[in-house]
Amino acid sequence: PWAMPATEPQRGAYRDALCEDLPDLARDRLVSVLFDRPVVLPRPTFHHLVSKAVAGARWLLDRPTLWTPAPPGLPGTAGDSPVAGAQRPDVLCLDLALAHHPDHPAEHRQAFFAWVELQSFVSAGAVLWAAARAASRVWPATGVTAPDGTPLDSGWPERFRRHLQGPAPTEGERWAVLEFDPWNQRTVFDQWMLARQVGATLCEPSALLATVRAQPPGARHRWRVLNRCIWHTGSAAERDALGHLMRDPALGWHSPPANYHRMTKALLQHALGAPAFPSHRAERMVPLARWRDIAERTDDLVVKDPDSYGGQAVWLAPAPALL
């Protein structure tokens, strides 16, 4: 039910439904990111994808020692900080690719879902909800559900908000979706969708810091921050503002900057081939210096920067000199 048929009229109707109510800039970015290559999956293949993703997520979340240590160089990640290290993600976003076994490249039956990436940005929950609503309008007979498998009209946005609040919500707290220069990001559409869905303000760290500091000492609101900032991509001024926010005990964090550097594709080097982790025998990952352990030729490799995002810093069949 999530697959997009290759017919242009249905693609257009789905695109219009998904972009409904989006600002023009966010609509343009959404179309450029999500509508490059429509894919149609048979239902059994789709369910195989879901089962592999769920089993992989459980394996990772059951091993927090792989991803909780704080990466170096981030302010506010010391042991006495309220955001020390990575946090258990509220939303785990998994990317997989339909690949062919390298020994049988022409045999379709050898295709499998290969692990590509994982992230913990909260905004994925809002995008999936928008996708479900749009799909239900274009393909009502498929029985598309909310992201948690419940009927679309059963109050998913409010349940998602309560999921983020946890068992002890704070009365009168305010919400912010935090990003560096959000309206110039390729992914501004999902940040905007998230802000609208949970009733948050979409802003930069400096704007939120100014708002927090302007509150009277005796009447400070607690802020719940849904972070999208990737530390090394911000300007010096915005990183400084983010550092101040991270050290403020009045702010509660979801997907803090440490998560981006710990909940990454680099974890797959520990997972691939491990007992109970769902992977194909052709899937292997090692640090760059050990590439000869898994391939004799560089044209059998995909090389990725662990801190890359948005499809950047990825090399297919790299030249030996690059390695």
Word description of this protein:
The protein is α/β, with parallel strands linked by helices and 323 residues long. The chain has ten helices and eight strands. The chain has helices at 8-18, 24-34, 43-61, 123-138, 156-165, 188-198, 205-214, 236-246, 257-262, 268-271; strands at residues 93-100, 111-119, 174-178, 201-203, 223-227, 251-254, 302-304, 314-316. The strands form three sheets. It has a four-stranded parallel sheet. The protein has a two-stranded antiparallel sheet with strand order 1-2. β5, α8 (236-246) and β6 form a beta-alpha-beta unit. The longest helix is centred in the first third of the chain and has 19 residues, at 43-61.
Short description:
This protein is an alpha/beta fold and 323 residues long. It has helices at residues 8-18, 24-34, 43-61, 123-138, 156-165, 188-198, 205-214, 236-246, 257-262, 268-271, and strands spanning 93-100, 111-119, 174-178, 201-203, 223-227, 251-254, 302-304, 314-316.
Mean pLDDT level: 83
Which range best describes the helical content: under 10%, 10-25%, 25-40%, 40-55%, 55-70% or over 70%? 25-40%
Strand order, main sheet: write it out.
Answer: 4-3-5-6
Which spans have pLDDT < 50 for at least 5 consecutive residues?
none
Globular, elongated, flat, extended or rod-shaped: what is the shape?
globular
